[in-house]
Design brief:
heterodimer, A: 444 residues, alpha/beta, Rossmann fold, eleven-stranded mixed beta sheet, 27 strands, B: mainly alpha, Non-ribosomal Peptide Synthetase Peptidyl Carrier Protein, Chain A, globular
Chain lengths: 444, 83
């Protein structure tokens, strides 16, 4: 079986991470990973929930060294984690917080005591074996697993990195405001650094002032990996950021206005990634200058009856996109919108049909439907829901949904109604939901 | 009472449609409590900054404490506000 290196860095003294102001060399990272691997239980799947990014990276490498599959859950709701247990029965969770996860076995991350190690070789990773598993929710109510081989991730990181000019930025440090447990965070804050020898900060700042403070602590050149929401927070607070080579955004579409304001305010370039859990990054753009997306080299987009299909040499199979788009040239396209059943909130994708099924199956709920209102300007879209129930009040329904759904999809607000405006065939026309939403808003 | 004012700000900002008095001042705002997530925290940070004239920080040592409950958030606002 073919192998690829774990990292492109070969110098053991090279700094690969910053943890609480302390540099961590490649050799220290590998010593820590080997030590943690020695403590891990013998299971086949490892859910890596570490929040500190250095620990996440150590946990990832440790799992790989131990031959375990790294599982990144779709959400933190109990229901999501129960599904993981059904999916793999030899599973446990590595965590550095005191999260409780139903009855999933927990292995607490303990920071290894630094020791000398004679083993200095860079680990080799089988390139074709499924190494990391991520999930998307489908319309059937079951999460779909997506296996990533190291070969796919490594080549994806090469293509993205070349586009971003990382070959000239190998001294850069990455700070990310997104968790590494989803595809964008994994690619941008873990895979790009490993593939290009960049270093990565252990922190995950949330607020504008935190982002500025975390960046200040890092040496230049700096790269900020973030989302439109965090960026908007930085722009509205008119925060002062230290010189940053570029800002990389994904998870929802960045408005050109916000991108331009951020470029001016922070004297940097704002670049955007387009991709999905199934494909990884497939295109980039600089929204302040151009609305067209430019496909990464080697990626093809082909139209079929029901939408667009992406193919590339490093993807095991072609993937149908859930977005509507229009090609503007062989290698460029513009995004038109999403399939009507799919909603994407805070970078998390869900099927409305699935959400509706879960709502309607709650004890005490007679009927119910989720609805995505027109986006309030510059705000993150949030779902709302209309529910018919004789016995539960709004808060009880929300409480029951919390067991089922990631908080990103909880309705804000949830309206109790006497009945849903179903038509003669039992369907709920979008226009009727728009009217109902208006009526409920006025009553408030 | 600042606690009521902050409860109303949370409800208005996040479109929660619950009665301000129904928020238990000691209950966690995130996850088990009101079920807020980090997007809510960001939205809330912007409202707080507009209304009280200071920027929230979360990677301070007392990070978890600020958002632990309505009561702790209100105390933090009281001690940090500039307006």
């Amino acid at each position: 079986m073919n192998h690829l290196p774990l990292t492109a860095t070969t110098d053991p003294e090279r700094i690969v991470a910053w943890r609480d102001n302390e540099p961590r060399s490649l050799s220290r990272l590998l010593i820590d990973a080997r030590a943690v691997a020695g403590q891990l239980p013998d299971r086949s799947c490892l859910i890596n929930l570490c929040e500190n990014r250095y620990r996440f990276l150590v946990g990832l490498i440790a799992g790989i060294l131990k031959g375990q599959k790294i599982v990144l859950p779709p959400g933190r709701a109990n229901e999501d984690l129960k599904r993981l247990q059904q999916h793999c029965n030899s599973i446990y969770c590595l965590t550095d917080t005191d999260t409780r996860l139903g009855d999933i076995e927990i292995h607490r991350y303990t920071d290894p005591v630094c020791s000398d190690s004679s083993e200095q070789a860079i680990p080799e990773v089988p390139s074709a074996k499924p190494q990391i598993e991520l999930f998307t929710s489908g319309s059937t109510g079951r999460a779909t697993a997506h296996q990533k081989s190291w070969g796919t991730l490594w080549e994806g990181a090469r293509l993205t990195g070349e586009r971003l000019g990382l070959d000239n930025l190998t001294q850069a440090t990455v700070l990310a405001t997104v968790p590494p447990q989803h595809m964008f965070g994994l690619e941008a804050s873990i895979l790009l650094p490993l593939r290009w020898g960049l270093s990565v900060s252990s922190e995950q700042p949330l607020f504008a002032a935190d982002i500025a403070a975390s960046l200040e602590k890092l040496p230049a050149p700096r790269i900020l990996v973030t989302t439109p929401l965090h960026l908007r927070n930085c722009v509205e607070e008119e925060i002062k950021l230290p010189q940053t080579t570029f800002i990389l955004s994904a998870t929802s579409t960045l408005s050109p206005t916000l991108a331009s304001r951020a470029e001016r305010l922070f004297d940097t370039q704002v670049l955007e990634i387009y991709g999905s859990t199934e494909t990884g990054a497939i295109a980039t753009r600089r929204p302040a200058l151009k609305s067209d997306w430019s496909l990464l080299p080697g990626i093809t987009l082909d139209q079929e009856t029901k939408g667009w299909r992406v193919a590339a040499a490093h993807l095991p199979e072609s993937v149908r996109l859930s977005d509507r788009l229009k090609k503007t040239s062989e290698h460029h396209f513009i995004l038109l919108g999403r399939d009507s059943d799919m909603v994407k909130i805070a970078g998390k994708r869900a099927s409305l049909e699935d959400l509706n099924l879960r709502l309607q199956s709650l004890d005490g709920v007679e009927d119910g439907v989720f609805f995505l209102p027109e986006q309030r300007s510059a705000s993150i879209p949030r779902l709302t829901a209309f529910v018919v129930s004789n016995i539960l009040d709004e808060q009880e329904i929300t409480q029951a949904l919390r067991e089922q759904l990631d908080p990103a999809f909880l309705p804000r607000p949830l309206f109790k109604v006497d009945r849903l405006p179903r038509n003669a065939t039992g369907k709920l026309p979008q226009s009727a939901l728009v009217t109902l939403f208006k009526q409920c808003g006025e009553k408030q | 009472m600042l606690e009521n004012e902050v409860a109303t700000l949370i409800i208005d900002t996040l479109n929660l449609r619950v009665d301000p008095s129904s928020i238990d001042p000691q209950a966690p705002l995130f996850n088990e409590g009101l079920g807020l997530d980090s997007i809510d925290a960001l939205e809330l940070a912007m409202s707080i900054s507009k209304k009280y004239g200071f920027q929230l920080r979360s990677n301070d040592e007392n990070n978890a404490n600020i958002f632990a409950s309505l009561s702790s958030l209100s105390r933090h606002i009281e001690s940090s506000r500039t307006t």
